Amino acid sequence: MAESTWVRSSIGTADAHFATRLGTKSVLVLVPHIVAGTRLLDLLPLLEADHRIQIVFTSPETGDGWPATDDFLRAQGGPVLPWSQARRSDVDLVLAGSTRGLDELAAPVLLVPHGGGFGQYQPWRLRADDRHQVGLGPDQLLRAGRVRADAIVLVHDREHDLLAELCPSALPAAVVAGDIALDRLVASLPYRGQYRRALGATDEQEVVVVTSTWSPRSAFGRHPDLFDRVVAELPADRFRVVGALHPAIWSHHGYRQIRSWLADALRGGLVLVPPDEGWRAALVAADHVLGDYGSATGYGAAAGASILLAGNPDQPLLPGSPAEVLARHAPRRQPDRPLVPQLLAAARARDAAGLPGLVRGLLSSRPGRTGHILRRTMYRLLGIPEPTRAVPVSPVPLPEPVTP
Fold this sequence. Notes:
globular
């Protein structure tokens, strides 16, 4: 984000003479990239209607530096502070979906994972330069022997056990809260019909979501023709194909390039959801998910879709993690074989293993309670009483597909 100017701020004292509401507690939302940003947006409704709180946004200098992140922040409608200003501002709580920038802030920090939890890979078998993928080691959570966050949100009890093994000094900050993204996904299930219609699916069509994480190892990285082949092979009268790409793909390559690469598939009927929101709505609408080792595949299984795996991760998966369980139970796509029978086989595998309930249990140890635990934790860090009114878990918005 550009650091050229100091902007008018709704926090601090310099511009207090412009304020209508005085004495508010300030919450800084730290957004280094879109993935972290979308997860942090799930937390903000927990603070709604509280006149004691003012929310502002920033992106650290250590963020991704992509213009897409700046565009994402501007679209939120809140004050966006340059990093040089934010790190010198007197804030009361920092909400972070990444450890980037935390060492330059003095306020209490709540750190949440920006995917389906922290641990996916076996940390004792990773190369030294891959340990960041676990997210729970001392190299990530400690600086100069100090824990970098006051509350480290874990989605599952098994992550608490992993943290005890990898970084026991961070245990006092650990909060097993569950997965707010999963809770919103489950809250959206009763509205499946509306999501399907928003994606253009008829009652006679099955929705197939093709999803890919980022990197050359991902499904889209290894198979650039993935979407073209799926759209060409599935009869349009029976299937509606929806594409969901990891936000890092959009950020690095740009909207125009993604639409260009997928031009033939889009002309052939592919429905493409944008990077910031729409992927969860697509997964709720899905009958089938063709996905790789990214978090979206696990969320698709939790939503009830059958899973057909595309490719393998290069690292060994942590036993008992959603990705590892799917790798054991879901069939793998065979590109040289007809796709429709493979989707049917995936549905049989889902039913035989009871994958939806199994994966939900692996994604969260506190199903339906995450919002309550997170709000209680945020107000504890803010040092003010938590409001007595309940905050219901809201369904995700209707998808707005990308225009071809």
